[in-house]
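Reposting from the mailing list since nobody answered there.

I have sequence plus structure tokens for a pair of proteins and want to know whether others read the tokens the same way I do. The first protein:
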Amino acid sequence: MPTFLKLLPEGLTVSDRTDSQDGFASVVVDDGRGRTLVQINVQPDMGGVADELYGDATTLPDGTLLATTQQPGEKGGAGVVWWTADTMRPDGLRVVVSAFNSGAQSTPATRPEPALTMEQLTAVATSPEWLKLQQ
């Protein structure tokens, strides 16, 4: 959770923290224009599923695979959208960061888009800070 919080963009009020200690964490952030649920999942040794998950991914200069999606939410919240940056490093470290335009997937949207842009989600997912956790 400390790495996740450190990588969030400045100017956000953070609340409703959840840290399951198994690589998954979430927070609700607000930039003054509505709440956004942000989730992260960090999974080591996932290289075996790279072909299955990253068929249409972009390969970054360091060999990291990056897949981004923007889709409707799937938990029933009216008007909820779900944006994701899903990465896998050459060593198999997978980091997935998602944001929703609501404080919870099952509640109505509080804003047109998530508080974090796709570029900001990608920056969190591709940060070299995640590599330090493996050392």
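The second protein, same order (residues first, tokens after):
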Amino acid sequence: MAAGQVEEKLKEVAFAACNKVKKKGKRYRGLNPWQEEDYKLLTFLAKGEHAIVGFRNKDLRSWLYPESKRLTKDEQKRYSGRTTRRIKLLRVHGLIKKVARENRYILTAKGQKFVGALMSASAVDIKGLTNIAA
């Protein structure tokens, strides 16, 4: 689904993912797409390289932390843990789902809408956005 085909407003698409969620007694923060780390995470999902077969923790980790390949085993485990928590955050918000019997994750329809809308909005200049809103 292309981002241009979404007929909802950006606020409607982004509202659920940008607010905190409570699942199984645990609270998870909302995504902040304008924060650098969350934006980088969403950019990884928007790339589309992993649309068919999905992505692994290792794929996301090497994108978020390119320096992690040159680190010690303990530091690699720490970065792997961080990446696992990022994946959990995306799963809780319903943006990705686990591929059955594999250590891979794919973007859901909700995730495609959310990421596509945000990437489109971030690519448009401010003058263009104000013209559209008016």
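Reply #1 (J.P.):
I read it the same way you do. The longest strand covers residues 21-23.
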